[in-house]
């Protein structure tokens, strides 16, 4: 019974990937905080010791989806136990914030635009008292007609911006002249981030109207800038610090600002530290989710399933404000090709404005919805032609020398999807299993199996060019210990350990020699959000640059001091080799200091080669692509609609891994999170637009038993990034999430294998209930 | 008001405390911030700790450690017990084997759920000598992780056990005798009582004391495991003026095993009743694995699952199908009430002011009878039923002689399906039994559409559950996927 399941031994991966002896690069090293995580001694913001005079903030939320605010009655709340003060919109001079467009009031003014919008903020002596008082606030709101769903928004022309478009070739002509034609639609659900640590911020007044704000955010710079904006003080007067988040997944890219701004306002007002953390229910009501979509498509194809022409319209529910929706829907269009060459394609993306919380970034950032759409189409094409969907996929894959241009004009220079898929097909015994499943399904009337392979090609870079920059700061102290700071934030993804490895490697010192420190806007300014999987690509390079600059100073000194050429000096094994001589790194640093060598430096990096013309929807938005593929097998109970994922095989490309253990964690974790999105995680609103799923008892993220029993995950060995990324590694945060599309496809395949005659297409998530109705049609006559 | 905390052999005082305070609130306001609040509703497990209690096994005092959701457990309930939190595992800076395994297997990413996983792993490590996947899933069923995808944590559990025999045992196994002695010293023989700014707490030890307190304070709220009631405090922000904890009442903790029936005290937890329940009703074993999560089962009581009168509690339909009877007590008087008569309407019962459930009497199955259970939910683990169906059926060769069917999730109360019962009895061998069952179910129920399921799904999937039951009784076995591991992928060489 003592059988170790699943994940391939990372030690083996590690050996495979590194032959550089004594280098920290490529080693399977645990997360930098792992030893503290397991002892509960890694402090999150709510764990920090509090000043005695710390006050706590909480929000009163609108229960109405759309309405005109007549009055807000705070009389009961004002006199409630422990209440200090109450803030309304009218008390705030600079009310509106937002990452791109300032269209999000910190507190609702005159009208409410979604259920869960903050109406008032309460300050009290404890978290509990603040929440209890907030619950006593009564708002008199005249209800107005609400636009809740994508369909309603589309029929009322309720949009946040003009539609995004991307065209290549002539899709209409190609569809018309194709032998086969299909049209259909797909409904794709949203997803709650369910970071285990809900949104939290702590604002501490320091002196002269200045503040330090601790924020659980992926974007300290944006929090800094928005706090400065609402307080009407220069950005230099606000320092935002983020040591770690208890999960982010995109949900703390913009949604952390509101809380931080309210805390800062209260802190400035009272000159006391002010903390706020959202209860789970408030967090789920107030903050945005992954965008849900309605997709309509038309496709023309030949006998082999090769897509001649395709038209896809994506309509995304963005919520009441713009947030990042334009960039998110743009990424949907960028990934509507996934790994397939589509010579004649027309994609449109509609930004539906609705009376719901403002949907926001979530791992994949619109990409997953684009990919699910095309993968669903491929599956439908295969069904129409009675082909194995894998053959249709292979027939459409991008090639290396021809058929290698994306609908947005980028030539794919690093394509490995064909060979990666072939390798996985063999490793996972796809063909044998397909046959075994056919036999199984013949022999079982009520239990059916399904199988699917889906590929992932994911573009790496922020599609807004200016965001692709990063800074780092490295200090070498007199004792040889090294302090590292960079603009990226740690949300569990292992960025800090990866950048630490980069720095330790540059100086040839032990990992313990390097301390990685909390992200702070006072150390690195104007940073981009830690997002788009770019954390280690950008910050790793910036930190390396800082090290190189320091080493340059060191070399300049050493060549003179020891009369050597640069090539005679090397840093390795915590030693500095100085020609024939050998010195410990620590002693060398001490000597350098005495000789007035500058032992600290910043570093800066901007991603090369990228450019994109938004008006023409053409260019090279991505520095490179990450690839992967996944085979999933499910078993389905036709009587109940219940299913179980029984086997998963993944082969994923991370270039030359900086840390295979961390990368493996991202692949496995991303896959399961994607599976949740497509299977059990179902957001439900009532017809008025009130979110009903506001806690873990009603919103079901995967639990431990949902882990497939056969779970074989392999990092593609002996591979490099053909672009010059940090030690030739590749980004890994987002791409694996989309491997889970194979689970949804396997469910669709099992339904199809059961001979279902259901005319309604399968939506995502494939809840048991939905699968049930795909399989069961009851006659209602009695 | 004292208890043992971690590796301190000196008892710790709760101090002046509002009885509505949860264990998690107490810990975090006393600088023990390792345990996290993820949901404050017992659903995510980030707050998990482990509680050690003295229990008697074969007349000997021994110590039992169980995982607990500290976010919905009341701090006053700790009195006389041993609380182990994530801060209490490492010794002199050396990680506990489960902590070390979590580091080695990369079982933490953001780290926020990690303390809870570590504590569930600690309970598993402490209570089991061998390990397998089913035990891991079972013990960690109440812990959600959003980062790792669980596989590294599963690997960590295997790794921790791989070296278990080699070491001398952790602090808690090495010092068990000393801990037992300290707990014996702490044990109260009388009512534990406290008051704080107009709020009161009583934890009596005898049933007479309990009736007396409830008689004098009919508005007092009875709490046992508190896994449901505490949500009023943490989610609805209510504050109870008077809380009466029945966990220590001897008579409510007893299990009487008689020839034809089992009488279970109302405050017996699912954990404590487990072996008796699955002995007499084996089909309860897979079913109860899906009742809440491990920490919920450790503290939730059968009496509480009935008393809260939820339409979606999983135990009432089972007990109605089994024709269970409640022994109710008020003052010195007791009365017997059939469980199916006990539920009057949504969250309303026959219980009078000052009256409480003393015990549940469950008739055992005869040799011709079997109990068949089905649960439909959105997720297999730790989820509330959309539909829960319990059928007790008596078969004669291949014919149904008697049948009792009860449902949860189909009406405002857990309820019998009398039309369905008649249909099954009369039309057992008809070809169109499924259609007839559907019609009967529509006569029995008009279920709601809500977050968990639509009305249509509830009715139709219930019909199919009937079909599945019939198929199974007729020998064409269709398993419940939630309970089986037998559908492995047929992977050559994989």
Please outline the helices and strands:
The complex is a heterodimer of chains A (782) and B (494).
Chain A: H1 10-17, H2 34-37, E1 55-61, E2 67-73, H3 75-78, E3 83-88, E4 96-97, E5 104-105, E6 111-112, E7 118-124, H4 127-134, E8 138-143, H5 150-155, E9 164-168, H6 171-177, E10 180-188, E11 200-205, E12 211-215, H7 220-231, E13 238-242, H8 257-270, E14 274-277, H9 280-286, E15 293-301, E16 307-319, H10 325-334, E17 345-353, H11 367-385, H12 389-396, H13 417-427, H14 430-443, E18 447-460, E19 469-476, E20 482-486, H15 495-507, E21 514-516, E22 519-520, H16 535-562, E23 569-572, E24 575-578, E25 581-584, H17 585-594, E26 600-606, E27 611-613, E28 618-620, E29 624-637, E30 643-652, H18 660-678, E31 710-715, H19 741-753, H20 768-775
Helix pairs in contact in A: 7-8, 10-11, 11-12, 11-19, 15-16
Chain B: E1 2-5, E2 12-13, H1 23-29, E3 48-57, E4 60-69, E5 82-84, H2 97-104, H3 114-127, H4 133-139, H5 151-162, H6 171-174, H7 176-186, E6 192-196, E7 199-203, H8 207-216, E8 221-223, H9 230-234, E9 242-245, E10 255-257, E11 261-265, H10 270-280, H11 284-289, H12 294-299, H13 302-307, H14 315-321, E12 325-330, E13 333-338, H15 339-342, E14 343-345, E15 348-349, E16 356-363, E17 369-376, E18 387-396, E19 399-408, E20 415-416, H16 418-427, H17 433-444, H18 455-473
Question: What would you say this structure looks like, in words?
Answer:
The complex is a heterodimer of chains A (782) and B (494). Chain A has 782 residues and is of the alpha+beta class. Helices cover 29% and strands 24% of the residues of chain A. Chain A contains 20 helices and 31 strands. In chain A, helix 10 runs parallel beside helix 11 (367-385) and helix 11 (367-385) packs across helix 12 (389-396). Chain A is globular and about 85 Å long. Chain B has 18 helices and 20 strands. Chain B has helices spanning 23-29, 97-104, 114-127, 133-139, 151-162, 171-174, 176-186, 207-216, 230-234, 270-280, 284-289, 294-299, 302-307, 315-321, 339-342, 418-427, 433-444, 455-473, and strands at 2-5, 12-13, 48-57, 60-69, 82-84, 192-196, 199-203, 221-223, 242-245, 255-257, 261-265, 325-330, 333-338, 343-345, 348-349, 356-363, 369-376, 387-396, 399-408, 415-416. The longest helix of chain B is centred in the last third of the chain and has 19 residues, at 455-473. In chain B, 55% of the residues are buried. Chains A and B meet through helix 2, helix 4, helix 14, strand 29 and strand 30 of A and helix 2, helix 3, helix 4, helix 5 and helix 17 of B.
């Amino acid at each position: 019974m003592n059988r170790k399941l699943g994940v391939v031994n990372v030690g083996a991966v590690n050996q495979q990937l590194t032959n550089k002896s004594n280098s920290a690069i490529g080693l399977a090293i645990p997360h930098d905080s792992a030893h503290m995580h397991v002892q509960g001694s890694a402090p999150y913001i709510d764990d920090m010791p509090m000043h005695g005079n710390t006050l706590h903030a909480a929000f009163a939320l609108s229960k109405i989806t759309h309405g005109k605010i007549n009055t807000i009655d705070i009389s009961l709340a004002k006199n409630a136990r422990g209440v200090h003060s109450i803030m309304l919109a009218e008390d705030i001079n600079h009310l509106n914030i937002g990452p791109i467009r300032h269209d999000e009031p910190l507190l609702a003014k005159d009208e409410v635009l979604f259920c869960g919008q903050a109406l008032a903020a309460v300050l009290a002596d404890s978290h509990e008292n603040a929440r209890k008082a907030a619950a006593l606030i009564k708002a008199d709101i005249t209800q107005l007609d609400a636009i809740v769903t994508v369909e309603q928004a589309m029929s009322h022309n309720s949009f946040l911006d003009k539609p995004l478009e991307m065209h290549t070739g002539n899709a209409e002509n190609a569809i018309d002249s194709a032998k086969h034609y299909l049209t259909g639609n797909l409904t794709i659900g949203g997803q709650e981030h369910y970071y285990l640590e809900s949104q939290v911020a702590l604002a501490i007044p320091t002196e002269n109207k200045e503040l330090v704000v601790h924020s659980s955010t992926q974007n300290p710079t944006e929090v800094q800038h928005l706090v400065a904006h609402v307080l009407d003080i220069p950005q230099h007067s606000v320092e935002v610090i983020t040591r770690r988040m208890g999960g982010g997944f995109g949900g703390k890219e913009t949604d952390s600002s509101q809380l931080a701004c309210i805390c800062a306002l209260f802190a400035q007002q009272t000159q006391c530290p002010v903390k706020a953390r959202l209860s789970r229910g408030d967090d789920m009501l107030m903050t945005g989710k992954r965008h849900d979509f309605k997709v309509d498509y038309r496709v023309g194809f030949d006998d082999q399933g090769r897509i001649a022409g395709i038209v896809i319209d994506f309509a995304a529910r963005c919520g009441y404000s713009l947030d990042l929706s334009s960039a998110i829907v743009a990424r949907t269009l960028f990934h509507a090709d996934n790994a397939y060459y589509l010579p004649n394609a027309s994609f449109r993306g509609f930004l539906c404005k609705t009376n719901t919380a403002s949907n926001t970034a979530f791992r994949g950032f619109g990409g997953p919805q684009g990919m699910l759409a095309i993968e669903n189409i491929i599956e439908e094409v295969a069904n129409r032609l009675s082909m194995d969907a894998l053959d249709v996929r292979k027939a459409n894959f991008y090639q290396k020398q021809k058929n290698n241009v994306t609908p947005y004009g980028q030539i794919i220079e690093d394509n490995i999807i064909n060979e990666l898929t072939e390798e996985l097909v063999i490793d996972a015994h796809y063909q044998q299993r397909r046959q075994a499943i056919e036999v199984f399904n013949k022999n079982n009337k009520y239990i059916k199996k399904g199988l699917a392979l889906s590929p992932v090609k994911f573009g790496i870079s922020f599609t807004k060019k200016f965001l692709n920059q990063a800074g780092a700061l490295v200090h070498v102290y007199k004792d040889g210990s090294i302090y590292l700071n960079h603009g990226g934030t740690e949300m569990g993804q292992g960025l800090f350990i990866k950048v630490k490895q980069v720095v330790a490697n540059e100086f040839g010192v032990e990992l313990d020699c390097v301390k990685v420190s909390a992200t702070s806007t006072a150390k690195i300014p104007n940073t981009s959000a830690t997002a788009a999987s770019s954390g280690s690509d950008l910050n790793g390079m910036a930190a390396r640059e800082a090290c190189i600059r320091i080493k340059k100073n060191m070399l300049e000194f050493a060549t003179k001091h020891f009369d050597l050429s640069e090539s005679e000096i090397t840093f390795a094994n915590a030693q500095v080799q100085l020609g024939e001589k050998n010195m410990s790194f620590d002693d060398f640093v001490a000597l350098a200091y005495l000789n007035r060598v500058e032992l600290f430096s910043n570093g800066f990096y901007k991603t090369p080669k990228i450019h994109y013309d938004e008006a023409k929807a053409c260019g090279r938005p991505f520095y490179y692509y990450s690839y992967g593929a996944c085979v999933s097998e499910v078993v389905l109970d036709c009587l109940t609609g219940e299913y179980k994922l029984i086997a998963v095989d993944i082969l994923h490309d991370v270039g030359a891994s900086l840390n295979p253990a961390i990368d493996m964690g991202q692949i496995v974790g991303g896959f399961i999170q994607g599976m949740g999105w497509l299977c059990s995680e179902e957001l439900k609103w009532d017809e008025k637009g009130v979110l009903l799923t506001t806690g873990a008892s009603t919103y079901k993220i995967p639990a431990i038993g949902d882990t497939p029993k056969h779970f074989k995950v392999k990092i593609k060995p002996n591979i490099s990034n053909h672009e010059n990324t940090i030690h030739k590694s590749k980004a890994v945060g987002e791409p694996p999430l989309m491997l889970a599309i194979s689970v949804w496809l396997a469910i669709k395949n099992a339904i199809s294998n059961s001979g279902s005659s259901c005319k309604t297409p399968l939506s995502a998530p494939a809840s048991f209930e939905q699968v049930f109705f795909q399989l069961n049609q009851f006659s209602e006559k009695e | 008001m004292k208890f043992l905390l971690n590796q301190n052999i000196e008892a710790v005082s709760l101090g002046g405390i509002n009885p509505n305070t949860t264990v998690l609130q107490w810990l975090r306001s006393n600088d023990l911030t390792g345990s996290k609040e993820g949901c404050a509703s017992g659903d995510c497990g980030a707050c998990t700790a482990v509680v050690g209690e003295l229990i008697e096994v074969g007349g000997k005092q021994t110590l039992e450690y169980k995982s607990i959701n500290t976010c919905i457990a009341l701090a006053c309930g700790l009195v006389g017990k041993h609380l182990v939190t994530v801060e209490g595992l490492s010794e002199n800076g050396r990680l506990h084997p489960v902590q070390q395994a979590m580091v080695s297997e990369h079982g933490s990413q953001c780290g926020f759920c990690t303390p809870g996983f570590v504590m569930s792993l600690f309970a598993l490590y402490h209570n089991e000598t061998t390990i397998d996947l089913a035990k891991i899933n079972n013990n960690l069923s109440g812990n959600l992780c959003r980062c790792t995808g669980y596989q590294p944590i599963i690997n960590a559990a295997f790794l921790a056990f791989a070296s278990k025999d080699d070491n001398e045992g952790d602090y808690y196994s090495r010092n068990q005798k000393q801990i037992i002695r300290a707990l014996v010293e702490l044990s109260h023989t009388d009512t534990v009582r406290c008051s704080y700014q107009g709020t009161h707490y009583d934890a009596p030890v005898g049933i007479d004391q309990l009736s007396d307190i409830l008689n004098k304070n009919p508005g007092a709220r009875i709490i046992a495991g508190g896994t449901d009631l505490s949500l009023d405090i943490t989610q609805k922000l209510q504050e109870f003026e008077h809380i009466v904890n029945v966990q220590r009442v001897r008579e409510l903790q007893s299990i009487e095993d008689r020839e034809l029936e089992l009488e279970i005290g109302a405050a017996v937890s699912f954990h404590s009743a487990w072996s008796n329940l699955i002995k007499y009703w084996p089909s309860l074993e897979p079913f109860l694995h899906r009742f809440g999560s491990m920490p919920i089962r450790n503290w939730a009581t059968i009496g509480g699952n009935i008393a809260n009168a939820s339409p979606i509690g999983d135990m009432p339909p089972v007990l109605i199908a089994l024709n269970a009877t409640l022994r109710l007590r008020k003052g010195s008087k007791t009365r017997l009430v059939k469980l199916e008569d006990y539920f009057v309407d949504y969250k309303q019962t026959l219980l009078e002011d000052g009256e409480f459930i003393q015990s549940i009497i469950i008739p055992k199955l005869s040799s011709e009878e079997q109990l068949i259970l089905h649960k439909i939910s959105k997720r297999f683990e730790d989820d509330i039923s959309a539909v829960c169906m319990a059928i007790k059926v008596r078969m004669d060769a291949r014919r149904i002689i008697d049948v009792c069917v009860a449902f949860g999730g189909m009406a405002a109360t857990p309820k019998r399906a009398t039309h369905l019962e008649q249909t099954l009895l009369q039309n057992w061998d008809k070809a169109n039994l499924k259609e007839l069952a559907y019609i009967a179910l529509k006569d029995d129920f008009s279920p709601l559409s809500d977050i968990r399921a639509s009305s249509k799904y509830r009715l139709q999937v219930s019909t199919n559950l009937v079909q599945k039951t019939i198929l199974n009784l007729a020998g064409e076995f269709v398993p419940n996927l939630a309970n089986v591991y037998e559908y492995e992928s047929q992977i050559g060489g994989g």
